[in-house]
Amino acid sequence: MTKNILGTILESCCDELNTGYFRNGKCDTCDNDFGMHTVCAEMSDNFLEFSKNSGNDLSTPLEESDFPGLKAGDRWCICLSRWIAALEEGVAPKILLRSTNYSVLVHVPLEVLEKHAIRDD
Q1: What is the pLDDT of residues 28-37, one digit of tens each?
Q2: Is 36 exposed, middle or buried (0-12, 13-18, 19+ CB in 10 A)?
Q3: How many domains, the chain?
């Protein structure tokens, strides 16, 4: 049973889109997930632009990968390093605490994560 950063069971980040390393809607991880797709983030225009400019275009659909492209308001499991980089640039997207993997706490203090929490959490 995987836990979230609140210490409870990791909940789905998005049921409509096949997100996460395992494409099961959860920000779960394993040793093979070198990107650590562990942060459940709600996309914003600023973050999508930042990610595109950083080499990871999340807004353009990729039919061959069955990826619809993301828009502001969509929730997606993003790489921990991308979220930290966005935080440093002042464009970190809001996160869903109950759907963000507990392993994130090794790299980011809970207090910082709580400041970026989606308030329906």
Answers
A1: 999 999 999 9
A2: buried
A3: 1
Calpha distance 59→116 (Å, rounded): 22
- CATH code at 63? 3.30.56.110
pLDDT band at 121 (very low <50, low <70, confident <90, very high): low
Q: Smallest Cα–Cα separation from 82: which of 32, 117, 48?
A: 48
DSSP assignment string, 46-108: HHHHHHHHTT---SS-BGGGTB----TT-EEEEEHHHHHHHHHTT-PPEE-GGGSBGGGGGTS
Domain ranges, residue 78: 1-121
Per-residue model confidence as pLDDT tens digits over 83-108: 999 999 999 999 999 999 999 999 99
Strand partners, 39: 78
Closest alpha carbon to 77 in 89, 64, 61, 95: 95
φ, ψ (nearest 5 deg) of residue 68: -80, -10
Cβ atoms of 14 and 76 within 8 Å: the answer is yes
